[in-house]
Protein: Focal AT domain-containing protein
Organism: Sinocyclocheilus grahami
Amino acid sequence: MQCDCVLCLCQIEMAQKLLNSDLAELISKMRLAQQYVLTSLQQDYKKQMLTAAHALAVDAKNLLDVIDQARLKMH
């Protein structure tokens, strides 16, 4: 049981780190999109921002799944 708890915590930490990295990437892409809002590059940066937002959403769902799995293992 102790080993399962450590494994669950490790998985949660890894998912959180990935989520934090994705959030930093989204912030970076949003800044670029704002910087180039009135230029011909606007659409490219907007696509990059939306791609980063999608990755963040997928990894947020993954974190919730990992937490749910850990909760189920505890009971």
The radius of gyration is 17 Å.
